[in-house]
Write a structure and sequence with these properties.
The protein has two helices and nine strands. It has 131 residues and is mainly β. 10% of the residues lie in helices and 47% in strands.
């Protein structure tokens, strides 16, 4: 579950004036970021897909997924990330997908997020067409 909480601003990418800030649990066990559906709906975020999920208690559930513009305390920039429409009253969870999008890793001892270098696998320009 979450190791610590951090301030995250969630904005509607189509209308930046519609946003809210909340403390999110940094949750390295969650693939996606979870936001209570009523808060996403209040700023006009609309679902674009649905996902089958396995919850931490083992239940399987199909939830709606949308995209929101996130800004994380202490991290430069705002990035559009997938967000799950969580049930009303749910915890706010910042998942691994958002952490990767921002290029950060979790420091559980310092209870902070630290920038990491992006690793690109596969081929590089020096090997394209060369062999």
């Amino acid at each position: 579950m979450g190791m610590f909480r951090i301030d995250v601003t969630v904005s509607n990418p189509k209308d930046l004036g519609r946003s809210f800030m909340e403390k999110f649990w940094v949750d390295t066990a969650a693939l996606y970021t979870f936001v209570p559906e009523d808060h996403l709906e209040a700023i006009g975020i609309e679902p674009i897909h649905s996902r089958d999920l396995i919850l931490d208690d083992g239940r399987r559930e199909r939830r709606l997924l949308g995209e929101a513009l996130l800004s994380i305390q202490g991290i430069d920039g705002r990035i559009t990330c997938p967000v799950i429409f969580a049930p009303k009253g749910s915890l706010y969870l910042l998942g691994v997908t958002a952490l990767e999008n921002f290029g950060v890793e979790v420091d559980p001892i310092g209870k902070t997020l630290k920038p990491i270098f992006a690793i690109i696998g596969g081929c590089t320009s020096s090997t394209l067409g060369g062999e």
